[in-house]
Amino acid sequence: MSAERLRVAGAAVVSNVDRGGRMAAVFIAFGWHIGVNVPGLVGGWDDYRVPWAALAGWVLFSLVGVLATARLFYGFAVPVVPLLAVLLIVDVLVIAVVPDGGFFNAYNWAWGTIGWFAILLLYDRGVAALVAVLAANAAFGLIGVVAANTGSGAVDLSRFVMYVYGTGVLPIALVAAMGVLRDTARSAAANEAARAALESERLGAAHAQRERQHRLGIVSEAGGALLHDLATGRADPADPDVQRACALAAAQLRRLIAESDDVPDPLLHELRACVDVAERQGVPVDLIAVGELPVLDVAIRRRLAEPLAATLATARDWARVTVVAQPDEVVVSLTTPATAGPAKESHSWPMDGVVDYWYERDEELVWTQTRWRAA
Amino acid sequence: MDADTVASGMTYGSGGARTSVAIVDDHPVVLEGVRSWLAADPRLEVVATGDNVDAVLTVGPADVILLDLRLHGRMAIDKVSELSAAGQRVVVYSEHHEPSTILAVLDAGAVAFLAKHEGRDHCVETVLAAAADRPYVPPSLAGAMVGDRRSSRPALSDKEREALLLWFQSMSKASVAKRMQISEHTVKQYVDRARIKYARAGRPAATKSALLARAIEDGLIRPEEIGTYRSYASPDRPLP
Question: At which residues is 4-aspartylphosphate found (chain B) (predicted)?
Fold first, then answer.
């Protein structure tokens, strides 16, 4: 569950990084198309062989650019290959209408711009497709240069190579750089996700460990010293006080074991465990629960059950345990003949203001009650 | 088992002052046991026993019917409604003491509910109180009332709730009195007032009206307190 969340978060990091690259590609393409190509088109208007064809080509480039941008940012499904074909056709068209001697200047705008627009269409499709488009572009350019045949063949060829190099390298470099950046972000996000998963696992394990140690502490307190005294003969199993202490420790152990069980009504489950210990000692116990128990934290359940369990462990004749539950209040009580529990007449104390505890003993009965009220 | 007349051959007490009781149960052993409990009390006279309500009633009228809720495998709550509507005082006793069952029995108009494990003293007291149209609330009934979360439940005061809760917990009025620092008599008043509020709730029945009338007569509640729910929340101090 949390691993899945981390994976999604990682994907979000990658897509954020990538968004920067896509924006750069769009800015470069349209910046070039408007900042460089428009003056070229205007300046060469009178010189183009068919000016309208050059203008139509410019408009087609713009259309392809807008569609490609929609794909990049909003995931619109656009036909990539046909649009690439449109770009190449416009490329050829502009080369064909450029006036003599205008091949290497801004009049021949499509030839220098096609790389940036191809990037918009091929952004996440690897470098190879882009190189193929640029190679086709170079081939068309070479045919154009040869066909123009200006008479200065060697110089033109040298300029041609220089231009091909200049217009090809930058788009390829951008695509390659973004690919590397994407991979880096993806692996960083994956690492972070794995690290976070490991960390939460570690925290969970530490928490479980603390819980276990806490319970172990209570258990040792409850039974450890007593067992030691019994083993060394310091405590006499026939002594009623020792028997009482044993019963108390047994009840505590049972309750602690019950605490970690996964059951629908944990409080009742824990109380039943205490009742069970008393019944094994031959004390009939009535456990009566009324109402539906709200979900209670283990610490609250412990405070509700522990004081009663201690008295119940010393019950002799009979005992009655009641639970009255409401959404905002749970009252647990134990009534038993006055032979059980500490002799002290009556006391009550609030436990952290969350669970209150009362203990009363008169000639006849011991009555104890724990009461939790929702804050 | 058919209904048989127990009273035949018995001598009646002075002026028929004894309370006549009919017992309906489909377990002969339980029937015998309960009959011996009640017969041991000079104020009570068991006039008929049987495993069938109609057969038992043909023997003759009884002040109180002690009715086992589960007869021949089915819950007789509709029978309780029918009898109560006709003004017959019914005390339901059952081993089924889930709060929802107890509250349904009260709604149906039973004068009292008794869990089978609650023993002789509660049984005798309940029947005597029922015959006098007075409330008697054994601990199991107190538990059902204090845990009642239905929206139709009557509004109990804090003191009434506390008295019910402690009575349910300890089953000793003396103990409740000590903890609430009031007299046992006042404890009983709180508990009985709570019970009377239930006589107002749900479907009307002749037996409920009788309980209310007697409560007013005894000064347990004032007539104006029966009017609306709002008045139930008014002074929670018991009447002198």
Answer: 68
